[in-house]
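Case study.
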Amino acid sequence: MTKASIQSITNWMEQPTHSPLLISGPCSVETPEQVLDTARQLKAQTPISLLRGGVWKPRTKPGSFEGVGAEAMQWLIDAGRAINTPVTTEVANAQHVEIALKAGVDVLWIGARTTVNPFYVQEIAEALRGVNIPVLVKNPIHAEIGLWAGAIERFQNLGISHVAAVHRGFFSSSKSMYRNAPDWQHSFDLRALLPEIKIICDPSHIAGDRGLVSEVSQVAMDLGMDGLMIESHVSPDDAWSDARQQISPEAVGQLMKELKFHNDVPIVANEELAQLRSELDQLDAQIVDVLRKRMHIVEDIANIKDREGMSIFHMKRWMKLVGEHSNGSEAGLSDAFLKELFSTIHKYSVELQTSLIKKTK
Ligand code: PEP
Ligand code: MN
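After joint prediction, the assembly is written out as follows.
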């Protein structure tokens, strides 16, 4: 790929203000025709900055299609060249890196099942010593922010100067309409930890269902994500992997047309917003004041429990506290919100009492 087009990716990673980056292409590179047709149709629909395609597929269950392997690397490169667009693929070990670099890949990505393992991440980072190719790091399967930030840092420590994160959602044991729970808060946490790192959303792996890809993409834009990685296939139903969540190039074009992009104005420039934010700030201060008063009472109770030799945690009391406050509908709040809030308040109350009583021993 020409230097100029890769430069558009590295520039995007460096700029504080930018327009969202679009990465699209099939989940897996299946045949030379499939990836080339997908690439051409995508290009005809909407400008894409990077063509994606999985050559090695980390599948949860053995026996499913695990990627064509090395041979497909060249097919992806050829498809990218045909539409004059840089390409990216997933690498999960040093051998993948070697093959991908030899073939001339432009950007690498680290999959969710690899980010969970610092040994693999380190091995890949070592294999890239002295190469300085842009790397995209997907969030680990489970919501451990330290692993995500740690993987990014491992690449940076080995001299990779262009690293971005990909938010692809998290495994969750609770039933949901999504394949992977978005848990957007984790992206905010990553931003707080590494403010200079761009975060791209992968709505396809969050949604797991093609009917939900556009709404997840919109939420990502509403939340200020820096780009999208969308799986697309010329014939989604026939895809060899992730068939349910892939969308046609035409659907990618439609999605991009309908997506509302935001042009954030500085807070002070919008008076109505500034007024409402100031009201929120006042309410937040009141909440903190109420919690402070509540904690003083918790302290007094700790003294009584200590004096009377009572245990700190009382199951009945806990059930009452959480139970009484878990019916939020009356207050126009969700039950789950109140339950979580009061569980947290109770947890820190118990912690405070434990530390106070320990001190008197
Ligand atoms: C993929 O992008 O096709 C993929 C396997 O993603 P993840 O690592 O997010 O599951
Ligand atoms: Mn996939």
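Observations recorded in class. Residues 3-258 form a domain with the TIM Barrel fold (CATH 3.20.20.70). The pocket of phosphoenolpyruvate (ligand 1) is lined by residues 27, 54, 58, 111-113, 138, 168, 205 (CB under 6 Å). We will return to this complex in the next lecture.
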